Amino acid sequence: MNEETTQTKFCKFCGSKIPYDAVICTACGRQVENLNYQQQAPQSMPNVIIHNANTNVNGMIAGRPKNKWVALILCVCLGFFGGHKFYEGKVGMGILYLFTCGLFTIGILVDFIMILLKPNPYYV
Predict the structure, then answer these.
(1) R_g of the chain computed on alpha carbons
(2) How far is the C-alpha of 21 from the C-alpha of 110, rounded, in Å?
(3) What is the value of pTM for the model shown?
(4) What is the tens place of the pLDDT at every residue in 30-76?
(5) Is 101 left (phi over 0), alpha (psi -120 to 50) or beta?
(6) Contact yes or no for 112/72 (Cβ under 8 A)
(7) Percent of the chain beyond pLDDT 90?
(8) Nearest 5°: phi and psi at 123?
(9) Three-class DSSP category at 71
(10) What three-state secondary structure class fits 38?
(11) DSSP sequence for 82-109
(12) Are 103 and 85 in contact (CB under 8 A)?
């Protein structure tokens, strides 16, 4: 086709010559005409379905709540025997504390400070 027989118009943004029925400028890519969905038949309109169901847990498993003050009292009274570790459900660490006298008392001091800084209730 010749350029004279094809109807053209000018882009209102960049001034390039574009086909008359163009909705988007072929030179700058901007929209030059409004889309008129009212002129189209209802069957040709897009049917958009949005399904937002987020079941992602990212591997996080919620623990059981434990009372900070109970754990602190167990740490002070039964720390050498690992009482606070058994309360938290950490049986392996409780047995280690049992055989090492609370990790030679240093473990008890560290746990006392850590439990003191935890919120109430905390989750293990």
Answers:
(1) 36
(2) 76
(3) 0.51
(4) 888 776 655 555 566 677 777 777 777 676 667 889 999 999 999 99
(5) left
(6) yes
(7) 42
(8) -115, 130
(9) helix
(10) helix
(11) THHHHHHT-HHHHHHHHHTHHHHTHHHH
(12) no
Instruction: Kindly list the distances between the CA atom of residue 67 and the CA atoms of 20, 22, 47, 85, in Å, as whole numbers in the listed order.
Output: 74, 69, 53, 13
Which residue would you say has higher pLDDT here, 13 or 92? 92
> Which ranges constitute the DSSP H helices of 8-82?
68-78
CB burial readout 90-121, b (16+ within 10 A) else e: eeebbeebbeeebbeeebbeebbeebeeeeee
Residue with tokens 């847990």: 57
Q: Is the pLDDT assigned to residue 2 strictly greater than 60?
A: no
**Whole-angstrom Cα distance, residue 34 to residue 15?**
18
The two structure tokens encoding residue 83: 């009482």
Token readout for 21 is: 């029925």
Per residue in 29-53, is it b (16+ CB within 10 Å) or e — as a string? eeebeeeeeeeeeeeeeeeeeeeee
